[in-house]
Amino acid sequence: MAGVSSGSLTAALVALEAKLPFASLQLAKDLFGILGTVDSSAGLRRALTDPSRSGDEKSALVKQLFSGKVSADAVDIASGLAGSRWASARDIGDALETLAASVVIAVAENKSAVSASGITGLEALENDLFSFNQVVGSSHEVQRALSEPQASPAAKIALAEKFVPNVSEEAKVLIGQAVSQPRGLKVTSLVRRFAELAAKRQQRWIATVSVTRPLTETQTSRLQAGLNALYGRELKINVTVDPALIGGIRIQVGDEVVDASVITRLGQLQRQLAG
């Protein structure tokens, strides 16, 4: 997805962020349900991405079709997508899929307690999706069974859950979506995409710290406390020693970078002198 469609998806993800702290799996299921309806009708896809129709017209069509059938939040999200611009008819479906998966991932992220094994809900979700792909990827027979066109979606979901019976509810939703509605992809490819989305969200809460020499325990504790206070949550800190920095520190959390290294300051000075 690129160009105008990419911009529309980015805007939709930003708008979705406000709903994620309170998101539920039912919201994700509602969005996946809307996706199923959109995917099943070429005429509807064309109507929702027709550049000659106004955004308000397309949003109204979604509200007319889905109000009362799914949650108000799901209708709001889908109608917002319909009101945006899309380069192709498939792109709006891809965006719906991404938003629905993002809701599932946020539900896993919102689990406040760390499990007995010491991993977060996001890490558990990634592990569950990886385990499913390991099982399915190692057996051509299982892959054929999950892609059998004559088998019902319910039968495929039931079969998939037999192979990974102990995964989280969040993983079950994403795996169930992948086996019942792969949208032209291999099941394992779609599950891998969902895992990549989870990993990308997890990366938002990992602080990669580059220093010129190892930090002491006291320095690490102070850094941990400072970053936790700054971001309002417990961050994972990965410290790497990089002598090329010469001095100072470089911190990256998700897409944000704080660079106070000597090498960066020298580069800035050089650019100023060059003029």
Kindly describe this structure:
By secondary structure, the chain is of the alpha+beta class. It has three domains: 107 residues; 82 residues, no CATH class; 70 residues, Protein Binding, DinI Protein, Chain A (2-Layer Sandwich). Helix content is 63%, strand content 8%. A four-stranded mixed β-sheet has the order 2-1-3-4, with no helix packed on it. α12 links the parallel β1 and β2. α6 runs antiparallel to α10. The longest helix has 21 residues. The radius of gyration is 22 Å and the shape is globular. The two termini are 38 Å apart. 29% of the residues are buried. The mean pLDDT is 88.
Instruction: Tell me the number of helical segments per DSSP (H or I, 4 or more residues long).
Output: 13
Number of discrete domains = 3
Choose one word for the global shape: globular
Q: What's the story with the biggest beta sheet?
A: 4 strands, mixed
Rg, nearest Å: 22 Å
Specify the helix fraction band: 55-70%
Q: Which strand order does the major sheet show? A: 2-1-3-4
Q: What's the end-to-end separation, in Å?
A: 38 Å
